[in-house]
Amino acid sequence: MSNKIRLGILGGGGDSLIGVLHRVASSMYDSYQLVGGVFNPDLDQNIGFAEKIGIPTDRVYKDFDTLIEEELKLPETERMQVVSVLTPNFLHFPMAKKLLENGFNVICEKPMTTTYEEARILKDILDRSNAIFAVTYTYTGYPMIRQMKEMIASGAIGTVQKIDAQYYQGWINPIIHDGEKRAATWRLDPEKSGISCCIGDIGTHAFDMIEYVTGMEVKEVLADLNYVYSDNKMDVDGTVLLRFSEFVKGLIRTSQIATGEENNFTVSIYGDKGGLKWEQENPNYLYHLTETEPLKVLKPGHAYNSELSLDGSKLPPGHPEGIFDSMGNIYKGVARAIRKEKYHPGEFPTMNDGVRGMNFIERVVESHQKGNTWVKV
Amino acid sequence: MSNKIRLGILGGGGDSLIGVLHRVASSMYDSYQLVGGVFNPDLDQNIGFAEKIGIPTDRVYKDFDTLIEEELKLPETERMQVVSVLTPNFLHFPMAKKLLENGFNVICEKPMTTTYEEARILKDILDRSNAIFAVTYTYTGYPMIRQMKEMIASGAIGTVQKIDAQYYQGWINPIIHDGEKRAATWRLDPEKSGISCCIGDIGTHAFDMIEYVTGMEVKEVLADLNYVYSDNKMDVDGTVLLRFSEFVKGLIRTSQIATGEENNFTVSIYGDKGGLKWEQENPNYLYHLTETEPLKVLKPGHAYNSELSLDGSKLPPGHPEGIFDSMGNIYKGVARAIRKEKYHPGEFPTMNDGVRGMNFIERVVESHQKGNTWVKV
Amino acid sequence: MSNKIRLGILGGGGDSLIGVLHRVASSMYDSYQLVGGVFNPDLDQNIGFAEKIGIPTDRVYKDFDTLIEEELKLPETERMQVVSVLTPNFLHFPMAKKLLENGFNVICEKPMTTTYEEARILKDILDRSNAIFAVTYTYTGYPMIRQMKEMIASGAIGTVQKIDAQYYQGWINPIIHDGEKRAATWRLDPEKSGISCCIGDIGTHAFDMIEYVTGMEVKEVLADLNYVYSDNKMDVDGTVLLRFSEFVKGLIRTSQIATGEENNFTVSIYGDKGGLKWEQENPNYLYHLTETEPLKVLKPGHAYNSELSLDGSKLPPGHPEGIFDSMGNIYKGVARAIRKEKYHPGEFPTMNDGVRGMNFIERVVESHQKGNTWVKV
Amino acid sequence: MSNKIRLGILGGGGDSLIGVLHRVASSMYDSYQLVGGVFNPDLDQNIGFAEKIGIPTDRVYKDFDTLIEEELKLPETERMQVVSVLTPNFLHFPMAKKLLENGFNVICEKPMTTTYEEARILKDILDRSNAIFAVTYTYTGYPMIRQMKEMIASGAIGTVQKIDAQYYQGWINPIIHDGEKRAATWRLDPEKSGISCCIGDIGTHAFDMIEYVTGMEVKEVLADLNYVYSDNKMDVDGTVLLRFSEFVKGLIRTSQIATGEENNFTVSIYGDKGGLKWEQENPNYLYHLTETEPLKVLKPGHAYNSELSLDGSKLPPGHPEGIFDSMGNIYKGVARAIRKEKYHPGEFPTMNDGVRGMNFIERVVESHQKGNTWVKV
Fold this sequence. Notes:
4 copies of one chain form a homotetramer. By secondary structure, the first copy, chain A, is α/β, with parallel strands linked by helices. Chain A has helices at 17-27, 43-52, 64-73, 89-101, 116-127, 143-153, 173-176, 179-184, 190-193, 198-214, 307-310, 323-338, 351-369, and strands at 5-10, 32-38, 82-85, 105-108, 133-135, 160-168, 220-226, 237-245, 248-255, 264-271, 275-279, 286-289, 295-298, 375-376. The first copy, chain A, folds into 2 domains: 5-139, Rossmann fold (3-Layer(aba) Sandwich); 144-312 and 356-369, Dihydrodipicolinate Reductase, domain 2, CATH 3.30.360. The first copy, chain A, has a 9-stranded mixed beta sheet. A 5-stranded parallel beta sheet of chain A has the order 2-1-3-4-5, sandwiched between helices. Chain B binds chain D through residues 157-158, 161-162, 164, 170, 173-174, 177, 222, 224, 226-229, 237, 239, 241, 247, 249, 251, 253, 255, 257-261, 268, 270-275, 288-291, 295, 372-374, and chain D through 157-158, 161-162, 164, 170, 173-174, 177, 222, 224, 226-229, 237, 239, 241, 247, 249, 251, 253, 255, 257-261, 268, 270-275, 288-291, 295, 372-374. Strand 13 of chain A pairs antiparallel with strand 13 (295-298) of chain D.
């Protein structure tokens, strides 16, 4: 019998891309076995999907509540050990909550919840449990991001003094300019997507990344969002000024109307001894700038990288790995945590990242609505 | 019960990187289930490895002959459908031969055999069977390589008139200059590695790639190899001039002493209407040059790509995929072939690629030994 | 006798880099002859410098007033036709003013003056004269910037909807953290450098560039500057949010504490049909992004470029030109204007650019001092 | 009176690009004054051109012989000190010869002559004179090429073991496929262009560059050229295998049918301690590869560069200079030599480079004609 971790998945059926990402990631390090879940609200499609992906259908449940009920009847040695929540955003909170309350470990897609309050409730529940909880800020799993984090921690660029993160996409451009489309897109509907589109979807990635690599906390934000049309209720572009302390500042720039941009997420951190820069679309390069030395370009898999970074590469230098491998690293970390093996806190984003992310979204919108003023995070 | 394709693996145990690559690739599209194999010549390590990667140990066999014997006892509906051969090079031929003779489909690592003669024998056997046989020239699975192939086929650069492929690495540099190390390295021992090191290991990738993307055949070669030391019996660097026809020429440049290079494999194809260029270390960019238009940079996942290319991307543009995903595409194609689904001949390299590759290696060494003269392929 | 334009230069002696830049630029198109000037406040050094650069010393004057006086005595056919003002910033205004009042054409380094008021005075004088007046925002002379301007004007990216300019340097980093150095650096002394360091020196380049390439005007700014130390009186970093209209926004990001950055000036303009991006450190590439086509990379000298762009290249594609060539293009435009030949208004930045630049600096500082609020430009 | 070096120019009139390049280069460091020449075989056009570029016409001569005659009548303090030969290739030899014989310093465009024999004759004459003679292999003037030379000399990459130079262009592609055009193009006419087109025009640049940066000499060549059509008499593509010693090899790859390539000249040198790579189209980056350190990217103007390199930059890092600046550096070196100031032998290519270049061309064609065999250089 397999000694893999028993994984369940909620959502991710049909043509879901996030489903593919999580399934591939879970299989990368021979650690997980997908044993069942609720991939689809429709039972027939649910079963059909299980067959399509070639897993037994006996633990494919008709709905979430049944999953909980039936799994709890199984002995602990057979029960799902961790459940990945890939459903629409508004379901993250109730599902994660009930999973935690019933002793399941949880891997939750971002945004973790739809409000900061929900996030805090979830945190309280987790604090009283022994469960492992991960939020899939996927980009933090890249080897060169891990290297960036450890280089900053070890003083490679001195004291951080300037931070600039960009997350530019163009995908909403053709939608926003078409009255019908912008009324019909769920991402632009506050009922379905919460209070923010651009900041909520991609701004949080930038926010989490900054705090991940620097180990610093954003203290205040001043935001200017763009809704482009007066009948549009959701931001599709926004700049957020950041303060970490009186003289340490930064900014997050996000857009979904940067026409032609694909997924142009970049992070630049400058300290008094040097700078580090990274681009998500070319994730295997980390640029180290100093005042007096040639520019250095670090790449994955080399012995000069930290252990945490090296742990995130499967092949030698020159064999490019990508975003599936990044998510695979996060799943690997969660597997270690579940198995109570030793792991580095940087291996996966936690509840704390999820809570801070929700707070960030609400404070940014508040700053914008108050006329672009400073708001404490 | 799972309807996944039942996969066996020979070799790839312990810390084998090629083992990781094949296991991850096989799991990417929910198509395969690893049911057993012989991962290691030592039975205990073999069992231990199976446990480590979390698969049942009942079909982990003590050796290759036992695997054949026992699997044949199973009903066809339970028997392994395909076996991946990841063992040391000299075992590829006997194992692939026996697998084909016993009706198994085969996925074989490159080089397919150690001699051209073995390759032709294997081809004869395959020609008399109904089996699917793939050789894992991994790089042909990249979406932008597939796009390159289809653009050339569709006339995007006109008639091909100039070809240049480079495969530069530096890994053998510290070994070659150390008398003891170069005597002890199996790659430099003709008994273990066949007649060529550099051409055999990486030159064949370049050769196969050129024929894959252009659909043309190399007719003649003139090679100059470098052994660096007179006591060294294996090439570690070599340039091969190519002739496709009287006025269509090209070259393959390979090196393992290009110090500091990682896995710098590039392909440039020029026609009378334009050129196409690609670099393995940045595999998600395809450069299209013409005389009168701006340089165009094609990227995976866009609607302007061919079906074959799009089939090789799992996520939208801007989400970088890498070499695991490339190998995953090859496994996906093999799965379709095994399931007798429709597939494109460009989805995986076949026996023919393997045979030509072996011929290429022998002709290159012949050309060098004859004093750098032209030899027909 | 030469029919070149007779050029005088104020400042730029000794090891002055700006002097080299202007002299080389003036010589690039066989249009100017340097006939004299005041290179240095010390007459001996002044003469010595003239000898060093190999020009006759008879029109090398002891000071600016003498230059005016003596040149006016010469017949118009011998008199300096244009004078380049390369002196310290606070001298730009009085010198440019007197030159204009005495009928000389002027090429003035930026910042044009030290206050917005001075700038308006200068503009009034120019408006009543027939003189040619250029401000050397050097970067607008690059062929791909000219191409960007014309592509935007011709609708290549549709209606502009998002603008992002970055100008990051790191040079002041080692100075700012050293109490003695930061007290002794003239750039950080408001007496010598006006009210702003970072915005005044490099922010204005970004501001002018945005208005140059888009043809649009910034209407409002909200700025957050960073002085890093409480005893430091000049900004060394700053982010400026821009409004062009209610729903068309942008930002300028500037820093002199982005440690390790050299002269990293980039401009990205997004419209509803596409985007255009450019980087000063690799000035011969213009990136054109659309939603449905491959990324296009335009390069100088190709027939697909506009006339204005092509006029800025001296050699065929593939022969990189740089910042000297960019300044040379500005001088070429001024030569045409002086000779009353036909020229394109985009060939050199004018008084209007200078005036708006000074207004921008003052409004940015005002916004910061008012607590990061919106201020009209 | 000016103390600049008195420069004459032969050729380079009309729309000549090479004329622009030399005039701008000569003016870059305030060292030369163009006093006359023979820009055009037609006297009227000759005078007209002098007026257009704004120089006095009194020393614009009707032909080369007259120039020699008249200049010799002038006192040495007024006579041209150096003459740049920019005429069609077949005139280089007779003009350079006569100039040297009459005591003029010479700056000669490449190829220096049309045959190796002419080159040796020229060398003999020079050896018996005190003149300065430079051949304008322009690319050797780039600061990062100078840095590459000095790093190799100082052992930064250890003992050189592998060399690869590429010079790919596509410009002849539309001509070669058009029977009429290829018959009418002077570059493809052996009467006008000597025995080689591609090797003669660009292969020599690669050859000179390799010997320049490594300080090593090519000992043997084996070449395969491509004439593309049987009625075409001149190579438009060619690969040359190089031997420096038994185990140190390299290659030069050249093409004018690499459709879409502009001026893609690259040089890669690998030693047993590391590698150095450079690309002409992005000349301000020098890549330093080692086995154990991150990739280092060196840029001009930094203190970590050698004196020779730093001498070739006029502005601080981040201000891109280009090919005009590279040629300017060569002219600067020649000026120092003429003035008998101290200079580094790497500042400009000499007669020796010219002679070896002509020998290379002839040996390459010989190797090709002998059926692609090894020929000593």
